[in-house]
């Protein structure tokens, strides 16, 4: 199996946009919840782990004045996102930076991406950090947002029990087959990853643990506006 960075998911980046919708239930609905919580007037937005730019495109469409700074450590994903954003005519509003968001949390002096962001968003990326790094990242995000700023994050969560883990897995597998896709064929397109920078394969935390981390990081309002089996959207405001 081809080696990829944790979070790239598929061996060929071109398979990501279709493949993620086949593997994960309600991917677009999940991203739209992040976007619905984002004020249309948002100016400066930070995106962590932008991947192929699917969330970025939804931000550009919702927030006509938004300028987006997007971090991703994968040159392949960043190139794919940049091409898509340029094709859509949003390139003036987008700055892609190849960087590890764990490094930004741990050693912010090494990566100056500015502060006073109106919002920070992320999807399917932060769960690659271990819990101590998740906490550091949440603290870094809280410190980077302007007063009242919003943090929206969609991620898989750790099941609270083995029974729930089995329920979540079955629901996810049924989703793929109900869409008319062959699970084995979709899975065969995935790459294999070990450690890359601060990320490794799934390092999941429960909803409760993540809400506590967000509160501890200084967010005043923390909520889960959407959840579908093991996928959750966290929304938090400083
Ligand atoms: C599953 S993809 C999700 C992409 C996009 N947010 C979406 O929802 O379609 C996760 C992305 O996070 C990136 N990523 C994972 N860990 C990272 C880290 N420590 N620093 C920067 N990017 C990271 C991966 O390269 C990948 O592009």
Question: How would you describe what is shown here?
Answer:
- It contains nine helices and seven strands.
- By secondary structure, the chain is an alpha/beta fold.
- It has one domain (13-237): Rossmann fold, CATH 3.40.50.
- The N and C termini lie far apart (43 Å).
- Strand 1 (44-48), helix 3 and strand 2 (67-72) form a beta-alpha-beta unit.
- The longest helix has 17 residues, at 162-178.
- The chain has helices at residues 16-23, 27-36, 54-62, 75-87, 101-106, 131-144, 162-178, 183-188, 207-216, and strands spanning 44-48, 67-72, 94-98, 117-123, 145-156, 221-228, 231-237.
- It is globular and about 45 Å long.
- Bound molecules: S-adenosylmethionine.
Number of strands: 7
In N-to-C order, the SSE pattern is HHEHEHEHEHEHHHEE
Bound compounds, each kind once, are: S-adenosylmethionine
How would a textbook summarize the main sheet? 7 strands, mixed
Secondary-structure topology with pairs:
Blueprint: H1 16-23, H2 27-36, E1 44-48, H3 54-62, E2 67-72, H4 75-87, E3 94-98, H5 101-106, E4 117-123, H6 131-144, E5 145-156, H7 162-178, H8 183-188, H9 207-216, E6 221-228, E7 231-237
Parallel strand pairs: 1-2, 1-4, 2-3, 4-5
Antiparallel strand pairs: 5-7, 6-7
Bound molecules: S-adenosylmethionine (SAM).
Kindly summarize this structure in a few lines.
The chain is an alpha/beta fold. The chain is built from nine helices and seven strands.
Observed structural traits:
alpha/beta, binds S-adenosylmethionine, seven-stranded mixed beta sheet, Rossmann fold, 9 helices
